[in-house]
């Protein structure tokens, strides 16, 4: 079994690794949220623009204005699709970071368990030594009382 100092070093490294993984996971989750918010904003803007177009169409618009609208809507659609790709990528990255954090946390917990077992074994050994010392002391006391 590894020495106490080695276990403490491993635990410290695992703790740092877990902390770093947690930070990366937080960044990845924030990126997912931001990507979803941008997507919602683009969809909302598209709906608003379509409503404005419908209002303008009822009042009558020129063929040039119609072409401009269609071109702009196509650009918005492209941006929305691109943002969906960004969401997928951000979600994939957050899944990877979550897996990395879970792996780091399992490693940290394993070292912690090993450390707890080492502490328990050391305590058991110490208790045995104390018991042996007490038994020897009691035996000597009994021997000298005779």
Write out key terms for the chains shown.
146 residues; mainly alpha; 95% helix
Which range best describes the helical content: under 10%, 10-25%, 25-40%, 40-55%, 55-70% or over 70%?
Answer: over 70%
Write down how many β-strands occur, each being a DSSP E stretch of 2 or more residues: 0
Q: Could you give the distance between the termini?
A: 46 Å
Strand content: under 5%
Mean pLDDT across residues: 91
Task: Describe the global form.
Answer: rod-shaped
**Sheet/helix structural class:** mainly alpha
Poorly predicted segments: none
Based on CA atoms alone, the radius of gyration comes out at 34 Å
Order of helices and strands: HH
The helix count comes to: 2
Main sheet record: none
Structure description:
The protein has 146 residues and is mainly alpha-helical. Helix content is 95%, strand content 0%. The chain is built from two helices and no strands. Helix 1 packs antiparallel against helix 2. It starts with a helix and ends with a helix.
């Amino acid at each position: 079994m590894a020495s106490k100092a080695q276990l403490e070093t491993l635990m410290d490294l695992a703790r740092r690794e877990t902390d770093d993984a947690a930070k990366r996971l937080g960044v990845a989750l924030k990126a997912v949220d931001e990507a979803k918010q941008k997507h919602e904003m683009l969809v909302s803007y598209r709906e608003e623009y379509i409503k404005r177009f419908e209002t303008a169409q009822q009042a009558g618009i020129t063929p040039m204005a119609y072409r401009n609208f269609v071109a702009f809507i196509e650009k918005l659609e492209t941006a929305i699709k691109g943002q969906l790709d960004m969401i997928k990528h951000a979600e994939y990255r957050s899944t990877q970071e979550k897996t990395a954090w879970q792996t780091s946390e399992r490693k940290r917990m394993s070292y912690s368990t090993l450390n707890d077992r080492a502490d328990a074994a050391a305590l058991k050994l110490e208790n045995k030594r104390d018991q042996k010392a007490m038994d020897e002391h009691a035996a000597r006391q009994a021997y000298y009382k005779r």
